[in-house]
């Protein structure tokens, strides 16, 4: 006989807690009304059938009632559970066999009493006390409808004796009644079941009921009509039971595999969706979790186990608390204690608890959940607790949880633990991909992800770029560990100032970015100024206090119509332009379009530089250097010039730093070196020995192959190394002395002259100067220009001349523009002068004219040329 479960239950969609609780309470009220209706109708129909079919019993047959009750009880215990996707559970049992026999051996009241006693006793033994009234009503309706149909068939056949057609019809009515009651319960609780599914299920139940009734009827007729035939009937019954059990195992295995596959697929899809879901905030970035996905998984487990409730308690983030996802009946209490015994279970295997058999802690835990029975399995990975799965109170009318339920839940829990561990790994990787490991703030990709949506939704938004300008200085002085501590401290100050909800990122080094929404104009400037002030407060580093300065640039989305909504990169770029503009004096600047033109111009210069060299836009000019004592032209300094077709003549101070920053300094140095040596070679062919000085960049000194390249070009043009001078700054050398000094020593070893340029403005230390393998020093022009009016500058120049000579170095003075300065330098013993007094930098053709006009050439049999200034 197919029996409806005590409390049909179907999937409950994830909703807000209050809404879900209200819906559950409404379902409970409807089911109570339905239960009272079933029970009342059952009692009334039982009375009516009893009056229609009066009791005819005998005291000698008192044993029939207990035997029937025992038979019903045994038939139910040997039943086969069929769980339906909608949450309804039926038990295909053998109760049709004692029922069909009862039609022949006992009156209606005895069969009804036996069925009630067996059913209610089983419910009480299984501690399913909350559904006794509904099931009692179902028992009454099953038996009364069965006897009513059998009585009608008897009347139709015109007999008062029980016949096998009447008994068969009555027996089939019982499972049909039970099925209709359960389907009605599905409707009452507003669960979904397709009509086709309901019809197929009803048909299968009637087929099984017909087989059972036929077996019981045939066995009774054989035993009643044939002496000693009961062994044969018992053998047939045993064979049928074995067939049913085999079918039950196959059906159960198939359903368990389907459920396991469904749960695994749900978890896998959930993980893929979480990984692909765009981050909406700094916290969600790490979690990547949708609770409704776990709600669906909990519903599927509940349906498969036919449980009244399934609770998934999961730690979805490594450092987060447990979160509970409930499917089925609401929990009596929303908050469970932190020392809940279910969270302290060791291992990862399934435990089966009954409130009457468990210890006091577990019993208290079940009582707090309002459960009589529970399957509990911890989810672990590498001995770390990831969560707990709990299944409460099986819905089957007769059975509690069995070994198949334990096996299925254990396998599902293993899959869930693996999936949770994988999701935590993905969440960790996702967090690392979008966060800065030093400060824990967003990184550039993370800021782009988080800021895109709010920036598109709020036109009044601004992106701030904040730079702490002491990072490199602290790194050089104290090391990167202390610089990192300053960056962390700066990040904390920014987070405290902006609050937890403002997207904040560390872009690189000591550069940060923040997104402000709902602000514009002066408000943005005020926030930027406040942040600058807070970051500029001195930083305590161990026992030191490091002075700091910050610069802030910002760009407002509302002030730029050329940007698309949500263009984070565009605003970041403009904020970067603005923060670079602060180096002119202001420490807080907002972006204006004119700033972009400056950097656009630099970008064009960098991208067009190679082409400019090929097309002859870039040339080399030369500024002569003259010996002060003899007035002879000793050499020239090669200076690069660029005549741009769009921008006109470009100053080297504008394009050389951009070329260096773009990594094209090798191209620039190579071009100047080659053009200079070509010029030297021409002079040599004319019998002149004039050296050329070429400026080196710090990037040249970091190129290990640079000396070999110099040797190659010297050989190419046949120029002796002593006619080539390389000029370098102290700061350039000392930026990375470990790399620069070996290269300088190699160049010096080749015979190339090395000169320290702009001496007096860099380290200007005797210790540094003694480390460098140099041949001459060049006094910076700022001191030479001020000699005539500033006694301090005069003293500096005299000191440099004396220092250079004491170290055996030649001394060159730049910026000589007046006769007084030349005379003072000559009086000090300065070796070489260079400046506008002698000549401005000249193009190659003009230099030749200058040499022709201002020098005399004398040749003899042996070519020796001396260039002397005409006075």
UniProtKB/TrEMBL annotation:
Keywords attached to this entry: Membrane, Transmembrane, Transmembrane helix
Organism from which the protein derives: Amycolatopsis thermalba
Chain residue ranges for the region called Disordered: 1-21
Top-rank taxon: Bacteria
Protein's UniProt name: EAL domain-containing protein
Record's compositionally biased regions (Low complexity): 12-21
Cross-referenced Pfam families: EAL (PF00563), GAF (PF01590), GGDEF (PF00990)
Gene3D superfamilies (UniProt xref): 3.30.450.40, 3.30.70.270, EAL domain
Location of the GGDEF domain: 459-593
SUPFAM superfamilies attached to this UniProt entry: EAL domain-like, GAF domain-like, Nucleotide cyclase
Sections of the chain in a coiled coil: none
Record-linked CDD domains: EAL, GGDEF
Residues annotated as transmembrane: 33-54, 100-125, 132-153, 165-189, 201-223
């Amino acid at each position: 006989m197919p029996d409806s479960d005590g409390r049909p239950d179907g999937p409950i969609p994830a909703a807000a807690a209050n809404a879900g609780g209200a819906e559950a309470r409404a379902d409970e009220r409807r089911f109570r009304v339905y239960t009272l209706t079933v029970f009342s109708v059952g009692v009334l129909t039982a009375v009516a059938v009893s009056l229609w079919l009066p009791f005819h019993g005998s005291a000698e047959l008192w044993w029939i009632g207990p035997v029937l009750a025992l038979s019903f009880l045994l038939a139910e215990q040997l039943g086969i559970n069929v769980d339906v996707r909608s949450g309804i559970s039926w038990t295909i049992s053998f109760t049709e066999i004692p029922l069909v026999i009862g039609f022949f051996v006992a009156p209606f009241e005895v069969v009804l009493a036996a069925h009630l006693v067996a059913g209610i006793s089983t419910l009480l033994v299984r501690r399913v006390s909350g559904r006794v009234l509904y099931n009692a009503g179902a028992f009454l309706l099953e038996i009364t409808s069965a006897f009513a149909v059998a009585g009608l068939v008897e009347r139709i056949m015109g007999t008062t004796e029980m016949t096998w057609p009447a008994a068969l019809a009555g027996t089939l009515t019982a499972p049909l009644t039970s099925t209709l009651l359960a389907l009605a319960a599905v409707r009452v609780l507003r669960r979904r079941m397709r009509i086709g599914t309901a019809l197929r299920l009803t048909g299968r139940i009637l087929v099984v009921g017909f087989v059972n009734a036929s077996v019981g009827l045939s066995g009774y007729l054989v035993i009643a009509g044939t002496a000693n035939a009961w062994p044969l009937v018992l053998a047939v019954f045993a064979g049928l039971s074995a067939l049913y059990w085999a079918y039950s195992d196959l059906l159960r295995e198939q359903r368990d595999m389907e459920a396991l596959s469904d749960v695994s697929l749900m978890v896998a899809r959930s993980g893929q969706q979480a990984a692909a879901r765009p981050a909406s905030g700094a916290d969600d970035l790490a979690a990547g979790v949708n609770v409704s996905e776990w709600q669906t998984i909990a519903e599927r487990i509940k349906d498969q186990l036919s449980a009244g409730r399934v609770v998934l308690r999961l730690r979805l983030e490594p450092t987060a608390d447990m979160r509970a996802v409930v499917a089925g009946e609401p929990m009596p209490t929303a908050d469970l204690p932190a020392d809940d015994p279910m969270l302290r279970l060791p291992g990862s295997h399934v435990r089966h608890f009954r409130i009457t058999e468990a210890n006091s802690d577990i019993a208290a835990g079940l009582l707090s959940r309002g459960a009589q029975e529970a399957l509990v399995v911890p989810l672990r990975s590498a001995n770390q607790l990831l969560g707990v799965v709990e299944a409460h109170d099986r819905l089957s009318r007769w059975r509690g949880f069995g070994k198949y339920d334990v096996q299925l839940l254990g396998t599902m829990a293993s899959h869930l633990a693996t999936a949770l561990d994988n999701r935590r790994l993905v969440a960790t990787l996702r967090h690392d991909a979008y966060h800065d490991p030093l400060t824990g703030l967003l990184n550039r990709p993370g800021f782009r992800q988080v800021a895109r949506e709010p920036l598109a939704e709020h036109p009044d938004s601004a992106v701030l770029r904040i730079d702490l300008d002491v990072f490199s200085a602290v790194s050089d002085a104290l090391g990167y560990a202390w610089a990192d501590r300053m960056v962390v401290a700066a990040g904390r100050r920014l987070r405290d100032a902006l609050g937890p909800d403002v997207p904040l990122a560390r872009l690189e080094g000591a550069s940060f970015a923040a997104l402000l929404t709902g602000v514009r104009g002066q408000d943005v400037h005020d926030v930027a100024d406040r942040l600058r002030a807070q970051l500029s407060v001195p930083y305590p580093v161990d026992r030191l206090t490091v002075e700091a300065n910050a610069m802030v640039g910002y760009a407002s989305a509302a002030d730029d119509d050329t940007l698309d909504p949500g263009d984070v990169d565009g605003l970041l770029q403009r904020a970067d332009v603005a923060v670079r503009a602060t180096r002119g004096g202001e420490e807080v600047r907002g972006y204006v379009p004119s700033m972009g033109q400056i950097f656009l111009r630099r970008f064009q210069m960098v991208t067009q530089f190679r082409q400019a060299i090929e097309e002859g836009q870039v040339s080399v000019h030369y500024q002569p250097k003259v010996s002060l004592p003899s007035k002879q032209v000793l050499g020239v300094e090669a200076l690069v010039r660029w005549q741009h077709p769009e921008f006109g003549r470009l100053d080297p101070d504008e394009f050389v730093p951009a070329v260096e920053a773009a990594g094209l300094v090798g191209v620039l140095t190579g071009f100047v070196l080659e053009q200079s040596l070509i010029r030297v070679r021409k002079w040599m062919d004319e019998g002149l020995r004039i050296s050329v000085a070429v400026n080196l960049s710090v990037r040249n000194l970091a190129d290990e192959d640079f000396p070999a390249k110099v040797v190659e070009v010297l050989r190419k043009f046949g120029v002796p190394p002593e006619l080539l001078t390389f000029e370098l700054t102290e700061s350039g050398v000392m930026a990375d002395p470990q790399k620069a000094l070996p290269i300088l020593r190699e160049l010096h070893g080749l015979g190339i002259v090395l000169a320290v340029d702009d001496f007096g403005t860099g380290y200007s230390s005797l210790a540094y100067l003694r480390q460098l393998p140099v041949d001459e020093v060049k006094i910076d022009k700022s001191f030479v220009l001020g000699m005539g009016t500033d006694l301090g500058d005069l003293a500096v120049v005299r000191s440099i001349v004396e220092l250079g000579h004491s170290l055996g170095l030649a001394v060159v003075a730049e910026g000589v523009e007046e006769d007084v300065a030349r005379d003072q330098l000559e009086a000090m013993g300065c070796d070489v002068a260079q400046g506008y007094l002698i000549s401005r930098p000249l193009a190659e053709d003009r230099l030749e004219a200058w040499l022709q006009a201002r020098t005399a050439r004398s040749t003899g049999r042996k070519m020796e040329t001396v260039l002397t200034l005409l006075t």
